[in-house]
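FAQ: What does a multi-protein file look like?

Like this. Sequence, then tokens, then the next protein.
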Amino acid sequence: MNRVLISICVKFFALLLTTVSVTSNADYSKHADADALITTMVDKHQFDRSQVETWLAAAKHQSSIVKAMSRPAEKAKPWHEYRGIFISDTRISRGVTFWQENQKTLARAEKEFGVDPAIIVSIMGIETNYGRNVGSYRVVDALATLAFDYYTEVEKRESRRKFFTTQLEHLFLLAKEQGKDPLTLKGSYAGAMGWGQFMPNSYRNYAVDFDDDQFADIWANPTDAIGSVANYFTKHGWKTNQPVATKAMIEGKLGAIKVNSMRRPTQSVKQMIDQGYRPIEAFPLDMTASPIRLEAKYGQEYWLGFHNFYVIGRYNPRTKYAMAVFQLSQILRQEYCKTTNICVQPDD
């Protein structure tokens, strides 16, 4: 490498470091893309402009958030490894304890919302390990970083920029509605909050004050968190006393149908059987289902996912995630039954 090239490289990296430094210390209230948000808060929601500017100026860039968003931990893992992250003896034990401690609340949630308590407990376990990992980032920092810096630092992703900008809008709205300082609210690196990891718009749409204390506290109150998760599921179409998924045996040549789609299932069980997917249990032939293929340790395993599997996917639209929630819920139900002798099945 000649001296000219070395000199160019040195200048380039110096410029890069300067750019990162400027980004890291930027005043988000003066960001080129912030004016539209500020105008929306003022004109549409009647916020005080100086207040919104003060909140944005206080938001801090978090480079660790950009790194985390750029390499999601579980995305590339095969199913058998992904499963091991979430379905462990410790998480199962903690889930049973959580169920025991909140049995009355879970029973009330099931009665009012029609959602299987095992699914609610499973969600709490997978999302935050029963409140142990709710996130330590200020939500305003996470959302500002992702709305204003992530798409420029990684690549220009217009849809993501709009999504996180909208979440900032909802953050300020929920803070106003709940009488909270938005600078104090904590969450994950993506801005998800509380035991059930609700984004700000989900909080405003689905969080409920389940203990009637005038605040839907999903951060520290498991009662409100349980009610909020149950409400989320019922508002997304959960069908009471309906199955989630079942294993399938493969017979003959499989039809050319897309597997692992998290769209609402449209083909019937009969059509699945005709295409080579035979469920190991009997279900109505007109019930809709979608084929699932997962990478097990020693080969492929096949499942059929029903409507409620799709609904779990509204929480996180990944097949492996929805399957982990389902399988953990099954184990939790079995262990809760052994421990308490209360063996309520989802179709009882």
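And here is the next protein:
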Amino acid sequence: MRVRPRLGLRALATGIGLPASMVCTEDRLAALAPDRPGSPDRTAHVIQSLGVACRGVAGPDEDAVTLGTLAAGSALAGRAPPDLLVFCSSTAPSWTGAGASMIAAALELPPLLAFDVKAGCSSTLHALALVARWLEDGQTALIVGADTWTRASPQADRGAALTLGDAGAAVLIGTSPADSGLLGGALGTWPRHRDALGGTGRLPPTVFAPEPGDFEVRGDPDRLRAVLPEISDAIRAEALQTHDGPVHRLLAHAGAPELIARNAAAWGIPADRVHHPLREHGNCGAANLLLAWHGLAAADPGETWLLHAVAGGISAGALLWRT
């Protein structure tokens, strides 16, 4: 489905919320194979192949809402409360009652429209497309993405154990007289590939704390690798039907550096114009694109960004944003 343009918007602020504990790949390798001596060369090889040098791991008193609250508070620092708050997460700690409402309560916000979006790693793109249609002059919307995927890491999957991370990030969107904002895009779902990536088992929001293996990321890695380029190209091609101008930067969510590099090369975007948080934070689900946005908060005005993500489900999005 194509997303219509909505100019007259701009990002007012961004924020991030990280766990207290950061785990380096070297330390995680040692924990996964305590009987196998490590070496700098082996660690460097793993970091290069997986793209992750360190990532946050949520502690017992941290979850997607607490990390999202940190990010939201940072984005709102010194600013008026938003009119709308959208919380994007697949690992919210409560089944009933929106995580958005929990964040609003933690920040002592006045009454507002607050709800959750659950579309995996592409959730923040769905949220951005929604708020772009709703905001009226003078209003603001806070989009928060946060996930704690380390708690759903398959015990037998070393790749997931070394790449999944926990984090929160937020962007505050407001109206603007400038010719900036959403240039268009596309959102879509490929149901026939649903089993290539998803989650299985007991959902985290239960009255019981999930035990290892209760809720895990599951899928078919070979099938996923085969369909990701196809889906990425398809959603980008549809997005470009709404905008035919140049693209200056790619903000990418992907779990592997080779897919990011492949997409950038296929789409003609130089490597130094590709932005993702994989090395510093790992794959943090719905937080990833907003983590990349936070790192570009001081970008030059007038640039066109392609925000791209493919998520479990399989849901995908590609939005074009003018700074």
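Q: Is there any per-entry metadata?
A: Some entries carry free-text notes. For the entry above: The two ends are 23 Å apart (CA to CA).
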